[in-house]
Inverse folding.
C-alpha cells in the first residue's frame, strides 16, 4: 500500500491529474455506498426506489461507479430513505490516501436513526448523571460484555458532548477545514448515520460532478 | 481483504503494449484510468458496483473498464487467465465511439492475447506498470 501512497503523491503533483482522480474516486465512493446501504437494509433496488420516490431505473443508474451527474437533491432523497444524514464537505487531497485504504463495505455502512447508538440512551434533564447510572446498573449489562450499542455509548462519553442544552451535535470526526483555506481541496459527499436536520436555504443548489 | 494482482500484456518483442497505450493519454484520462485500476486491484469486482462491464458479446472472457470523459476509454482485460480468482490481465487499450470499440477488432485481438498469455504466461505478461 506504500506503493499506492507514493504513486498518489507523485501523480497528484499535476492539477488535472489530482482533480480527475478525486472525481473518479468520489463517483466510486457514492455509488458503492448507496449499494452498501441498500444491502444493509436488505432492500432490492425497487424497494429503495419506492422509499426514495424515484424510478428503479434511476437507482440502477446511481449504483454505478461510472455515474457522475450527482445532485444534492437526489442524495437528500436517498439519505431520507436510508434515515441517515447527508454530509457534504471540501477536503484536502492528502486525505484521499487514508480514505482509499479504509474503503470497504464495513466502512461505508451506516446505522439508521432507530439503531443509532447515540439515540438509544434515555433523554433526561441530567444526561450525564443518567448515563453514569446506566453504566453502574448491573441489570443493564448483567455480568456480560456490553452490547455493541452500549460500547459505542461508553466510547462517546466525551466531556461536553451533550452540550449545555443537551442537544448539541456530536463533534465532527475531523477538523480538517480549520486553517486550511489556502490548500487545494476536493469535494466529498457522505451519507452519515447520525440524525441531522437539513439546513435548507442555499444548500438546495445542486452539486454537479464531472460530466459523464 | 485480498488484493488482486494486475498484469500487462507483453508482445512477442517484449514490449508492454498496455503501458505504451497509457503513455499516450492526457493527464485527465490517465488519472481516471488509474483510479479505476486502483479500485480493481484493491477490491476486485465485488464491492464497487459495475466496475467491470461485460463479458463482451462473442468474447466470453473479455471485459472492459468504462472510463467516461471527452475520450471514452475502454481498456479490455480478462480475469486470470492463470489464477482467475486472484488476478486480471490488461490486454489492449481501446476507446469507444458510436457504440463501437476502436481499434476495430479490439475484442478479438484481446482474446488472441489472452490465449497467448495462457500458453506462456511468463513471456507474455508482466506486472502492471503504472503510468503517471
Amino acid at each position: 500500500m506504500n506503493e499506492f501512497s507514493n504513486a498518489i503523491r507523485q501523480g497528484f503533483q499535476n492539477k488535472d491529474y489530482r482533480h480527475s482522480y478525486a472525481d473518479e474516486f468520489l463517483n466510486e465512493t457514492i455509488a458503492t455506498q448507496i449499494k452498501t446501504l441498500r444491502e444493509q437494509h436488505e432492500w432490492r433496488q425497487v424497494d429503495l426506489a419506492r422509499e426514495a420516490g424515484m424510478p428503479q431505473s434511476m437507482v440502477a443508474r446511481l449504483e454505478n461507479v461510472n455515474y457522475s451527474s450527482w445532485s444534492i437533491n437526489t442524495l437528500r432523497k436517498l439519505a431520507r430513505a436510508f434515515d441517515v444524514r447527508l454530509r457534504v464537505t471540501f477536503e484536502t487531497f492528502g486525505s484521499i490516501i487514508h480514505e482509499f485504504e479504509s474503503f470497504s463495505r464495513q466502512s461505508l455502512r451506516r446505522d439508521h436513526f432507530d439503531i443509532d447508538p447515540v439515540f438509544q440512551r434515555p433523554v433526561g434533564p441530567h444526561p450525564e448523571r443518567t448515563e453514569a447510572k446506566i453504566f453502574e446498573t448491573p441489570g443493564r449489562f448483567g455480568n456480560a460484555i456490553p452490547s455493541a450499542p452500549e460500547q459505542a455509548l461508553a466510547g462517546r462519553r466525551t466531556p461536553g458532548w451533550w452540550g449545555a442544552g443537551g442537544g448539541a451535535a456530536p463533534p465532527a470526526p475531523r477538523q480538517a477545514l480549520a486553517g486550511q483555506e489556502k490548500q487545494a481541496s476536493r469535494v466529498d459527499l457522505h451519507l452519515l448515520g447520525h440524525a441531522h436536520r437539513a439546513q435548507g436555504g442555499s444548500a438546495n443548489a445542486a452539486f454537479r460532478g464531472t460530466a459523464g | 481483504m485480498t488484493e488482486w494482482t494486475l498484469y500487462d500484456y507483453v508482445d512477442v518483442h517484449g514490449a508492454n503494449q498496455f503501458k505504451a497505450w497509457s503513455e499516450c493519454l492526457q493527464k485527465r484520462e490517465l488519472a481516471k484510468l488509474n483510479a479505476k485500476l486502483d479500485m480493481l486491484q484493491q477490491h476486485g469486482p465485488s464491492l464497487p458496483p459495475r466496475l467491470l462491464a461485460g463479458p463482451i458479446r462473442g468474447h466470453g472472457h473479455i471485459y472492459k473498464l468504462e472510463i467516461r470523459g471527452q475520450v471514452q476509454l475502454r481498456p479490455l482485460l480478462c480475469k486470470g487467465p492463470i489464477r482467475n480468482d486472484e488476478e486480471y490481465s490488461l490486454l489492449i487499450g481501446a476507446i469507444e465511439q458510436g457504440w463501437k470499440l476502436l481499434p476495430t477488432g479490439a475484442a478479438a485481438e484481446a482474446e488472441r492475447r489472452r490465449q497467448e498469455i495462457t500458453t506462456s504466461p511468463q513471456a507474455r505478461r508482466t506486472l502492471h506498470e503504472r503510468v503517471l
Observations:
- Chain B has a mean pLDDT of 95.
- Strands of chain B lie at 5-9, 52-53, 63-65, 76-79, 87-92, 95-97, 100-102, 125-127.
- Chain B touches chain A through 26 residues (CB under 8 Å).
